[in-house]
Amino acid sequence: MSGWTIGTALKEGKRKLREAYDEVSFDAQILLATVLGVDRAHIIAHPEKPISDEQVVAYANLIQRRVNGEPYAYLVGHREFYGRDFIVTPDVLVPRPETEHLVEHAIMMVEGFYKDPAEVRAVDVGTGSGIIAISFALRFPTATVYATDISPEALAVAKCNAELHGVKNIQFLEGHLLEPLYENNIKVDLILCNPPYLPSDLVPQLPFSRFEPEIALDGGTDGLLYYHLLFKQVHLVGVPPIRMFLEIGSTQSQAVLRIAHQHLSIMLQEVIRDYAGHDRVVRLSAK
């Protein structure tokens, strides 16, 4: 045996993490629990238990990756979103809690406007890990839901998450934005989308951009490229009144609304703020 115990490994993990972070206990505990295949409570309750040389090395590797700035979700392989646990890999964006506002308001809209959720035909554009489509489909298991992504690797993760949560009413389609729908003559009345919306020159400056897929972050020169592209395609798949919920950057609401009016006949528009008071979701209805 190595002579290491849970307690001594935890102490060393915290010491190393303090090189980069102020709050270290939780990360140190969860990363060790991941290596040992136990829960956090076990780590806290059994500091005297010995661990092997291989486990010490694996733990040290995870700690160093965290010190280097790698997102916690990639280290443990999962992330909580809207009350459920989702598989996360470096092929997909790490789920953000702000995106829950999009899901929550889309659900409220369906509950308020549709007599029968089975009438809903929705698409999650750029689904990534599938968190939006799956959360929505679980709430409305009789709805018809599509999920598109240009990345086959991301779609593979989304399909794993759908299987994990027992979702049966999502069809996953590979392709760019709404292309897989209009190429297959599929019509929808609800579009959900969290597109890349960071300006290109900002992406390299952000610490997480070294680890997350650039294709999921880079929104072009001004961060608005994918709103232009998406709105141009809406008429090819949308059944009026087509309803949309789009995540946005905190300073982009007015620009996104202007782009929407350039391409669509807008009947209703609303800017939804997150818990921090920042603009986060644009809701639209178009005829």
Summarize the SSE layout with pairings.
Blueprint: H1 6-17, H2 25-36, H3 40-45, H4 53-67, H5 72-76, E1 78-81, E2 84-87, H6 100-113, E3 121-125, H7 131-139, E4 144-149, H8 152-164, E5 170-174, H9 179-183, E6 188-193, H10 225-237, E7 238-247, H11 253-263, E8 266-273, E9 279-286
Helix pairs in contact: 1-2, 1-4, 2-4, 6-7, 10-11
Describe the structure.
It is a single chain. A hairpin with a 2-residue loop joins strand 1 and strand 2. 37% of the residues are buried. 40% of the residues lie in helices and 20% in strands. It has 287 residues and is α/β, with parallel strands linked by helices. The radius of gyration is 21 Å and the shape is elongated. The termini are far apart. The longest helix is centred in the N-terminal third of the chain and has 15 residues. Helix 1 packs across helix 2 and helix 2 packs across helix 4.
Biggest sheet overview: 7 strands, mixed
- The CATH homologous superfamily name of the largest domain equals Vaccinia Virus protein VP39
Give the termini separation. 69 Å
- Helical residue percent band: 40-55%
The Cα radius of gyration reads 21 Å
Structural class label: alpha/beta
Rough outline: elongated
| Regions with little confidence, pLDDT below 50 for 5+ residues | none
List the keywords.
Rossmann fold, 11 helices, elongated, Helicase, Ruva Protein, domain 3
Short characterization:
This protein has helices spanning 6-17, 25-36, 40-45, 53-67, 72-76, 100-113, 131-139, 152-164, 179-183, 225-237, 253-263, and strands spanning 78-81, 84-87, 121-125, 144-149, 170-174, 188-193, 238-247, 266-273, 279-286. It is α/β, with parallel strands linked by helices.
